[in-house]
Structure formats: structure tokens, C-alpha cells
Amino acid sequence: MALLALHMQQQGDSARLSDIAARLGLDNKLGRPVNQLSGGEWQRVRLAAVILQIDPLSNSAGQLLLLDEPMNSLDVAQQAALDRLLHELSAAGIAVVMSSHDLNHTLRHAGQSWLLCQGEAIACGETAEVLNEENLTAAYAIPFQRVEVAGHIMLIASQ
Hints:
The chain has helices at residues 2-5, 14-23, 39-54, 76-91, 103-109, 127-130, 133-140; strands at 64-68, 95-99, 112-117, 120-126, 144-149, 152-157. The protein is α+β, with helices and mostly antiparallel strands. Strand 5 and strand 6 form a beta hairpin. The model has no long low-confidence stretch (mean pLDDT 91).
């Protein structure tokens, strides 16, 4: 817990630290040495630290959260927990900007997207419009299909 406490804007807000840690499934891991954490556990510790720095309940000045591939090393349940936290932060007025290679996750959760190809933006705007077959084929040089599965649109690379 000491490592995460360093990232709190207001020292002594241990209740918020405990809440975020519990929501990311870290509550029983906070006493472990860093070298005894798995890749996913360490990823969640780093995410908790960043969230604590901009959390509107502890830092009214927090406005922007930048995340680079935050879902890496997380299982599906951990991804869902992080998605809930990010949604709450966004609803509280925090701008969440993240990179991802998971097109279907992006399609489900992002309001706006930029599609990059070799460092250049080839499309930007509403995610459903950006992640279309034509743009994805141009970006990845393989054909894509949009299919509906159980009421959800999925993107599938078709080789």
C-alpha cells in the first residue's frame, strides 16, 4: 500500500486508495513485494497509481488520463473492472485517451477513435465510423468483416 500511497494527491486518503485497489482486485496484494507480483497484478498496481493521481474524488484538478495499452496482461474480468473505472472517470469529466490494438474492445468502449497506420492518422471521428472495413483494410493490408454476434458488432480479419 505504501507504493500506491505515494500517488495520492492528498496524503491520508487511504479509503480511496483501498476502494480503487479493491475494484482492481488488488486489496489482498498490497502488502506483497513488487517482485512477487504477476504481470497482470503489476499492471493493475500501475493503473491504480495513475488513477489515484487524477481521481476527481481526491484531486479536483484532474482532467486528463493518458493510457498506453492499459489492457495488456489483464484477463477478461480485470479488463471489465478497469472498463467500469474508466467509464466512471469519463462520466465525472476526466478525458480518457488510450492506445489499443484490440479493435473489438475499442469498438465497444471508445466514443472517438484515431486509426493510425505507420504513425499517420488515416481516419478519426466516431469509433463506429472510423473502424469500418475500408479503413481497417487500408491500415492492416488485410480484409475485414463486420459481423453481428449476440447483438454486438464484431470486427473479424478475413485472410
